[in-house]
């Protein structure tokens, strides 16, 4: 006798539970932060609080390359002016092809006599470059021959 197979097909597919309707609403999308708070171009402050006090050099200024003291504290006036200065070299090489860099922060004195030690290069047009009197590295600044004012670059000296 043949067993007639009753195919017992399991009925039905899996029941799909749950609709999609009840899903929570997605969290609010963040506002686009484009263009918020972009800082203004970084203008240099009128004074640098850790170098300038009452408009004068707070510290004595020294050569970066040797112990030579260029000027005592509180004798020079802080001065902002964009000016291209040749990159640092020995004084003897200063008159050769000059690669310059723009500098804008200076300490100004009205006369070269106000320095403790300073070297002066040959005239280049109406200015002379100032160098360390001992190791002759420079320029650390420049002097205007028309009015004798001398400018020392903050970036080229060591404050002590
Ligand atoms: Zn020096």
UniProtKB/TrEMBL annotation:
GO terms for molecular function: guanyl-nucleotide exchange factor activity; zinc ion binding. The keyword Transmembrane does not apply. The keyword Nucleotide-binding does not apply. GO terms for biological process: post-Golgi vesicle-mediated transport; protein transport; small GTPase-mediated signal transduction. Residues 1-47 are annotated as: Disordered. It holds the Pfam family Mss4. PANTHER family: GUANINE NUCLEOTIDE EXCHANGE FACTOR MSS4. This is Guanine nucleotide exchange factor MSS4. It comes from Folsomia candida (Springtail).
């Amino acid at each position: 006798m043949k067993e007639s197979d009753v195919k017992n097909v399991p009925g039905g597919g899996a029941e799909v539970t749950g609709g999609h309707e009840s899903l929570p609403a997605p969290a609010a999308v963040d506002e686009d932060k484009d263009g918020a708070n972009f800082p203004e171009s970084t203008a240099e402050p009128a004074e640098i609080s850790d170098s300038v006090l009452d408009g004068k050099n707070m510290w004595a200024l020294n050569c970066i390359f040797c112990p030579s003291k260029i000027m005592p504290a509180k004798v020079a006036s802080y001065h902002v002016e964009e000016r291209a200065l040749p990159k640092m070299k020995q004084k003897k090489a200063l008159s050769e092809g000059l690669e310059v860099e723009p500098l804008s922060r200076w300490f100004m004195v009205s006369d070269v006599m106000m320095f403790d030690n300073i070297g002066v290069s040959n005239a280049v047009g109406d200015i002379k470059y100032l160098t360390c009197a001992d190791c002759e590295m420079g320029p650390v600044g420049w002097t205007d021959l028309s009015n004798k004012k001398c400018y020392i670059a903050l970036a080229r000296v060591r404050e002590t």
